[in-house]
Design a protein that fits this description.
Layout lengths: L6 H17 L12 H18 L17 H14 L8 H14 L2 H13 L4 E4 L15 E5 L2 E8 L10 E7 L8 E7 L5 E5 L10 E11 L3 E2 L5 H14 L3 H19 L7 H31 L5 H24 L6 H16 L6 H12 L5
Length: about 375
């Protein structure tokens, strides 16, 4: 592992900084949180700008619109866009961070040619249909059924916690095609405009509605939309999870670093920074975030060799979720004697958001099981 950037990587960083400085001057104001049509337009417009400038899919194959660079340059891209305050991937995080990389690794040539350029250019927005009301953490118990009928699968069932389903064009969908738990799952590309799909947005604790329940009633999906073999979807899903847990939280980590810096600045303007215990806790969180950044670089180095992130992604996700909880709890203690205003509101939102991180992308209990079984070799 090398924690330093090469001269070529530093040149890439400088060119990106110059482009961001110019491009961000013409980005419109961010739309209202619940204006989903405008949010999709805003996010996909930025994605199109990246695509036209050659900054979309930094480490994706050039044949499908990517830059063909190393995962390290992708890390640099995330670092610099976060530093500059550029728009995040937004409503298409599933397509860009989960489904797209999975199709690169596991899809066939026709699927790659059909979807990858459109994901990168912002033409396609994706959502994820994995979790179910009775099979969240125990994903292998999913019950949404797909029956092979000629050249289609007929799908019946429901999914939950489906982010941005109300604006998605496609869904990465796990379905049951046979009875064994892990061996009877298939990974499908589901067009969201199919007859029989019902999307019902849900309200979160923060009052937002990015999550939805999605119901499937005799939905017909072409067999050609299957990624991998029938009943091999669990293995393909593990590839998806390796991206979801290994690299998709990088922007989250960088945002948390910035949030901590703003919390420190707020403390310095109050008497709270005079408390040695508070200063110590702030320093411990800062050290943990720095260590997670070093672990991210290690995971990326491994991905450069292997093509997909390894179990280090589960290590990262587990520890990051715990550090994020500590940061949120610390912020609530620091803010307690301070009148809440626009500046401090982000820390309250961050504290509420931290509650979801130990659940999203695999609960902390699941991550511990993965590490104990697959890394330490302990019995189930």
């Amino acid at each position: 592992m090398d924690l330093r950037y090469t001269p070529d990587e530093l040149r890439f960083r400088d060119e990106l900084r110059a482009w961001l400085d110019e491009a961000l001057r013409t980005v419109p104001d961010k739309p209202a949180a619940e204006d989903w049509a405008s949010r999709r337009a805003y996010d996909t417009d930025w994605q199109r700008r990246l695509f036209d400038a050659g900054y979309a899919g930094i480490d994706w194959p050039p044949a499908y619109g990517g830059r063909g660079s190393t995962p390290t340059e992708q890390l640099l891209f995330l670092e610099e866009t976060t530093r500059a305050g550029a728009p995040y991937v937004g409503v298409n995080f599933v397509g860009l961070l989960h489904a797209g990389p999975t199709i690169v690794a596991e899809g066939n040539d026709e699927q790659r040619a059909r979807h990858l350029p459109r994901i990168l250019s912002g033409e396609e927005v994706w959502c994820q249909g994995f979790s179910e009301p009775g099979a969240g953490s125990d994903l292998a118990s999913l019950q949404t059924k797909a029956v092979h009928d000629g050249d289609h699968y007929v799908v019946n069932g429901s999914k939950i916690w489906t982010s941005f389903a109300q604006v998605a064009d496609f869904c990465e969908l796990l379905v049951r095609t046979d009875s064994p738990k892990h061996k009877g799952i298939t990974w499908l590309i589901c067009p969201m405009d199919c007859d029989g799909i019902d999307v019902r947005p849900m309200k979160t604790i923060q009052g937002s509605s990015e999550f939805s329940e999605v119901f499937f009633n005799d939905v017909r999906i072409p067999v050609t939309n299957r990624v991998g073999d029938e009943n091999d979807g669990w293995r393909v899903a593990m590839v998806t999870f390796s991206f979801e847990r290994g690299t998709a939280f990088v922007s989250e980590l960088l945002d948390s670093m910035q949030l901590l810096r703003r919390l420190v600045a707020l403390c310095k303007r109050s008497a709270r920074f005079d408390d040695a215990g508070i200063r110590r806790e702030l320093a411990h969180v800062s050290c943990d975030l720095d260590a997670l950044w070093a672990l991210t670089k290690r995971n990326v180095t491994q991905a450069e060799r292997a093509g997909v992130p390894g179990p280090g992604g589960s290590v990262f996700k587990l520890h990051y979720s715990e550090v994020r909880h500590r940061l949120g709890d610390l912020a609530m203690r620091v803010l307690d004697p301070i009148t809440l205003d626009g500046e401090t509101e982000e820390h309250v939102r961050g504290w509420m958001h931290a509650m979801s991180i130990t659940i999203a992308a695999g609960t902390s209990q699941i991550q511990r099981n993965i590490l104990s079984e697959r890394v330490l070799g302990l019995p189930r």
